[in-house]
Amino acid sequence: MFKRISLFILTNLAIMLALSVVYGVLSALGVLDASRGLGAYGPLLVMSGLFGFGGAFISLLASKWIAKWTTGAQVIAVPRNETERWLFDTVARHASRVGIQMPEVAIYDSPDMNAFATGATRNSSLVAVSTGLLQQMQRSEVDAVLGHEIAHVANGDMVTLTLLQGVLNTFVIFFSEIVGRIVDSALRGRDDERGGPGVGYWVTSILARLVFGMFAAVIVNWFSRYREFRADEGGASLAGRDNMVSALRRLGRSEESHLPDAVAAFGITPRPSRFGALLRSHPPIEERIARLQAAQ
After folding, report:
1. pLDDT of residue 201
2. 145 Cα distance to chain centroid
3. CA nearest to 130, candidates 4, 280, 287, 254
4. In this predicted structure, what is the pLDDT of residue 36?
5. Is the pLDDT of residue 38 over 50?
6. Could you give the dihedral angle defined by the CA atoms of residues 259, 262, 264 and 266, in that order, rounded to the nearest 10 degrees?
7. Strands (DSSP E) along 24-103, which ranges?
8. Spatial contact of 105 and 75, defined as CB atoms under 8 Å apart
9. φ and ψ of 132, to 5 deg
10. Angle in degrees, 0-180, between the axes of helices 241-252 and 285-294, rounded to the nearest 10
11. What's the distance, CA 142 to chain centroid?
12. Quick check: 54 pLDDT over 90?
């Protein structure tokens, strides 16, 4: 727990520091000067885009390092036994079939049956599986799970999700600021010449971010569920539909995912949502199986 909290704090501090430096440079260059043609809301939109996309892309660039650090995943540089050799060769075979460069292959110690893929680009990715998955699944099922993860990489899901998150972050920040300024201006009245935002701004903008952020989360999780269906199809194509269905059925009988929050959305085993179906990152296993069977 301490490790996860420390990573969360350090990552966000690094992101805020990097974005603050960029923001300072843009201010010095006059990009954020409303008098230079961007209009009253131009600088605000630039700032919103900077922090909205900046945070998302910095997280993407650091995703492999974060995944390794939080899960303790050990990358297979040279296979040490027959299981690691089979795992390495299977990932290489799937990667060759879909036309991407060989990902890093890793194993992390966990009783959960789970696997995930992450990375900044299709040709700089990481595929990791749990020891629980290797121990409890047949190789034909593990083959399908690896195909599922390689499909995520080949589809560019990590980058697409980051772009979507960046756009939504930008609009959440932008419109929250607009709402906060409008309410603050209405509460002050025309004769109030106090400098700086008032309490109305701070309270309203925070509430607006929570509300808009909830809508953004619904959209992000809708796309996340959609990409799981596509990855299941990819796994079926690479390893056989029956093997993919069998793997999903076995996952359906397993316990919920215990992956760290930083990579939970990328795991093949879903984590139940406490806030309803709209905020689930994964479709129900039964629905995924039904989709695969209907596509035969």
Report:
1. 82
2. 19
3. 254
4. 46
5. no
6. -120
7. 74-75
8. yes
9. -60, -40
10. 160
11. 23
12. no
Nearest partner of 235 among 157, 112, 133, 140, judged by Cα: 140
Read off φ and ψ for residue 270, nearest 5 degrees: -75, 155
Ranges of each domain in the chain: 73-296
Whole-number Å distance between alpha carbons of 188 and 200:
9
Residues 6+ apart with CB under 8 A from 123: 100, 101
141 is catalytic: no
The mean pLDDT value for 28-56 works out to 64
Provide mean pLDDT across the span 12-24.
Answer: 53
Taking only the tens place, the pLDDT of each residue in 111-123 is 889 999 999 898 9
Q: How many CA atoms lie within 13 A of 158 on its CB side?
A: 31
Q: What is the pLDDT of residue 193?
A: 57
Residue type, 39: G
Nearest to 231 by CA among 127, 112, 110: 127
pLDDT of residue 52: 82
* CATH of span 73-296: 3.30.2010.10
| Active-site hit among 82, 104, 141, 149 | 149
Radius of gyration of the chain (CA): 22
CB 60 within 8 A of CB 200: no
Q: Which pLDDT does position 14 carry in this prediction? A: 52
d(CA 119, CA 6): 21
- The tokens 């195909």 sit on which residue? 147
Summarised one tens digit per residue, pLDDT across range 95-111 is: 999 999 999 999 999 98
Q: Is residue 46 packed enough to be buried (19+ CB in 10 Å), middle (13-18) or exposed (0-12)?
A: middle
**Distance (Å, whole) CA 88 – CA 250:** 22
pLDDT at 42 over 90: no
The predicted pLDDT at position 8 comes to 43
Contact 295, 233 (CB under 8 A): yes
